[in-house]
Design a protein that fits this description.
PH-domain like, seven-stranded antiparallel sheet, five-stranded mixed sheet
Length: 561
């Protein structure tokens, strides 16, 4: 009895100590992941787990987003996951998304970005794979853009494919960065918009981004009416539904606004705090963690640079070997054709020689017969002389006939000898052609029979096609010991690569401008939206996102009254 009670107590104690869990589903741009979380976990516990799973270190740009009653919200790091207004049914769903955006992607992003870009979906351009029609089922452009231009899907595909082929061989990280550099120059890049009212009740839009707070007219999300850069804001606060922005310059009046939902106010405050923190962080010396990340990134870049160089050398050697193989195969075919022609010519020559020999034999026999007849004729002449006087004319005709027979026999003998020599020469040519063919085959066999190229490369190395001949190339080790001289050389290579990258980037921008000019003639002006017209007006005035914000921030005090 006591043992049974002890067992139940032990089981109950074990049951109480066992943590309760719940299932969380996190969606990324490429996949969905599920985690088993403890009920006591805070937002940071779940967020860190997701970041570790993704291998992400630049965590400060991202967050876990969820939706409650048609309102977007972000998981708070210091609050228990289940204490948020998340749906109670399992799995609890979040979306891993960018919450904050860098001011300058090229300077701030250390890790490679894993975006679901065209480059990552299709890889590098390959004319044997990316043939006409390979984009037929893809929605590469918004319908609004397609409707704006008088271009068929085939015309779009042709231009996109030409552009794709133009940038063949570009590294993935370069392609990603160029994509982000184009995106970050767009007026609406990284801006979170919220419907607000000022103290007069006027409906406006509040934009929160990496540069500061911006106030827009509801029908113009491109050009702000007022801008408050983060370094010119002294304080942001809200009470109930009213927000107050206090500029650093005390001569400028405060700006007050309100929104209709408490959850929206909390979201605005979160975004303000996060963007301001990152803004100030960018203007301070890098933390030890970021310094380490940048050092590792430089080393990784050096590794990749050396790896790209190695792969480029191997590719060049392979292409050269392929060209050599193709040339040998072409030459072998040519030699085979020449050998066939020589063999046919020899056969014809041998047949001709046999005919000539036969004809010569017949002619020789005819000559012998004529000689015999001539002898008989001589004998007959002598006989006639002995019996009667023959005329001089008969004698002359008989001698002429004998002479002709002798000349014909001599000519046929010479022709037979000449044909025999020609047949011997053709036999010699055929033998030489066959010897050249044998040497070409041996050379091709030597190339293709060399030891097989290393098929199992380091996992970071791109697999090469297996249908090409293998070559015995020296595989370089992927583990590097960086000495001072190596680092200096790598630094020079990285600097050179940086210059080349800048030139490529400039060329890319020029190509973009050319493409815009090219398709501008096909634009249907009557289908332009209000945003299109505003964007065109800004571009025609030379107003970029940054100088527009600078101008309006300088004149904000004029509007605040």
């Amino acid at each position: 009895m006591a043992g049974a009670i002890a067992s139940r107590m032990s089981f109950s104690s074990l049951k109480r100590k066992q943590p309760k869990t719940f299932t969380v589903r996190v969606g990324t741009m490429d996949a969905e992941m599920e985690f088993s979380c403890e009920v006591k976990w805070k937002g940071k516990d779940l967020f860190d787990l997701v970041c570790r799973t993704l291998g992400l270190r630049e965590t400060w740009f991202f967050g876990l987003q969820y939706t409650i009653k048609d309102t977007v919200a972000w998981l708070k790091m210091d609050k228990k996951v289940l204490d948020h207004d998340v749906p109670t049914e399992e799995p609890v769903t979040f979306h891993f998304l960018a919450k904050f955006y860098p001011e300058n992607a090229e300077e701030e992003l250390v890790q490679e970005i894993t975006q679901h870009l065209f480059f990552l979906q299709y890889g590098d351009y390959d004319p044997n794979v990316h043939k006409r029609g390979f984009l037929a089922q893809e929605e590469l452009l918004p319908k609004r853009v397609i409707n704006l231009y008088q271009m068929t899907p085939e015309m779009w595909e042709e231009r996109i494919t030409a552009w794709y082929a133009e940038h063949r061989g570009r590294a993935r990280d370069e392609a990603e960065m160029e994509y982000l550099k184009i995106a970050q120059d767009l007026e609406m890049y990284g801006v979170n918009y919220f419907a607000i009212r000022n103290k007069k009740g006027t409906e406006l839009l509040l934009g929160v981004d990496a540069l500061g707070l911006h106030i827009y007219d509801p029908d113009n999300r491109l050009t702000p009416k007022i801008s408050f850069p983060w370094n010119e804001i002294r304080n942001i606060s809200y009470s109930d539904k009213e927000f107050t922005i206090k500029p650093l310059d005390k001569k400028i009046d405060v700006f007050k606004f309100n929104s209709s939902k408490l959850r929206v106010n909390k979201l605005i405050l979160q975004l303000c705090i996060g963007n301001h923190d990152l803004f100030m962080r960018r203007r301070k010396a890098d933390s030890l963690e970021v310094q380490q990340m940048k050092a590792q990134a430089r080393e990784e870049k050096a590794r990749k640079q050396m790896e790209r160089q190695r792969l480029a050398r191997e590719k060049q050697m392979r292409e050269e070997a392929e060209r050599t193989r193709d040339e040998l195969e072409r030459r072998l075919m040519q030699l085979k054709e020449e050998a066939t022609m020589a063999n046919e010519a020899l056969m014809r020559s041998e047949e001709t020689a046999d005919l000539l020999a036969e004809k010569a034999q017949i002619t020789e026999e005819e000559a012998k017969l004529l000689a015999q007849k001539a002898a008989e004729a001589e004998q007959e002449m002598q006989r006639i002389k002995a019996t009667a006087i023959r005329t001089e004319e008969e004698k002359r005709l008989m001698e002429q006939k004998v002479l002709e027979a002798e000349m014909l026999a001599l000519k046929m003998a010479e022709e037979s000898e000449r044909r025999a020599k020609e047949a011997d020469q053709l036999k010699q040519d055929l033998q030489e052609a066959r010897e050249s063919e044998r040497r070409a085959k041996q050379k091709l066999l030597e190339i293709t029979s060399k030891s097989s190229y290393t098929q199992s490369m380091n996992s970071s190395t791109t697999a090469l096609p297996t249908d090409l001949p293998s070559f015995n190339l020296i595989s370089e080790s992927l583990s590097f010991d960086f000495k001072d001289t190596d680092m200096k050389r790598l630094s020079m290579e990285i600097e050179k690569e940086k210059v080349e990258y800048m030139e490529k980037s400039k060329h890319l921008q020029e190509q973009l401008n050319e493409l815009k000019t090219e398709i501008e003639a096909l634009k249907l002006k009557e289908r332009e939206t209000a945003l299109d017209i505003l964007h065109n007006e800004n571009a025609s005035r030379g107003n970029s996102k940054h100088n527009t914000i600078k101008k309006v921030s300088e004149g904000s005090s004029l509007y605040l009254a």
